[in-house]
Amino acid sequence: MPFEIPDNLHPDCAPVAWLLGTWRGNGHGDYPTIEAFQFGQECIFTHDGRPFFHYMSRAWIVDDNGDKVRDAAIETGFLRPKADGSLELLLTHNTGFVEIWYGTAEIGTPRVELTTDAVVRTQTAKEYTGGHRMYGMVEGDLLWAYDMAAMGQALQPHLWGRLVRQ
């Protein structure tokens, strides 16, 4: 699908402008403490001309036929790019986590890499200590991967997906 850079895009957001829009697709999850699973996902990146994007993602577990089984994770937050290509990401999750991430957007390349700086969790949230995320555009699609350290496990691959611009 064609993409046009919005007229009111803040200059600091230029390196990540390729993320803007609604993306949908599928992903996979795996971790030593859980059974492997497949999911559908929708991610939305919006802006209003200020130097940040609002981000929202929702996912749902699917069966082997791709049919929805149940709702899954929801996360929302703000991606705050800086003029030098550095990034700040603030995320809140329905599962009881709040995270602060720092990273970079490669200038001239549709790629973002982020690592957690702080994780705060509610009393009822599962133990989770940190993560690493990568987003990139490949053949016009948004590919992403999330590594997680949780439940006494070291940082390792957990989720990955491929989303198509809507």
TrEMBL record:
Class of this enzyme: isomerase
Tree of life domain: Bacteria
Keyword set, alphabetical order: Heme, Iron, Isomerase, Metal-binding
Residues of the THAP4-like heme-binding domain: 13-165
EC number: 5.99.-.-
Reactions catalysed according to its record: peroxynitrite = nitrate
GXWXGXG (motif): residue ranges: 21-27
One GO molecular-function entry: metal ion binding
Annotated binding of heme b, by residue: 33, 126, 158
Pathway(s) where this gene product acts: Nitrogen metabolism
Its job: Heme-binding protein able to scavenge peroxynitrite and to protect free L-tyrosine against peroxynitrite-mediated nitration, by acting as a peroxynitrite isomerase that converts peroxynitrite to nitrate. Therefore, this protein likely plays a role in peroxynitrite sensing and in the detoxification of reactive nitrogen and oxygen species (RNS and ROS, respectively). Is able to bind nitric oxide (NO) in vitro, but may act as a sensor of peroxynitrite levels in vivo.
Family per similarity comment: Belongs to the nitrobindin family.
Comment on protein domains: Forms a 10-stranded antiparallel beta-barrel structure able to accommodate a hydrophobic ligand in its interior. In fact, this fold hosts the heme group, which is located in a wide surface cleft.
Name recorded for this polypeptide: Peroxynitrite isomerase
Lineage: Bacteria, Bacillati, Actinomycetota, Actinomycetes, Propionibacteriales
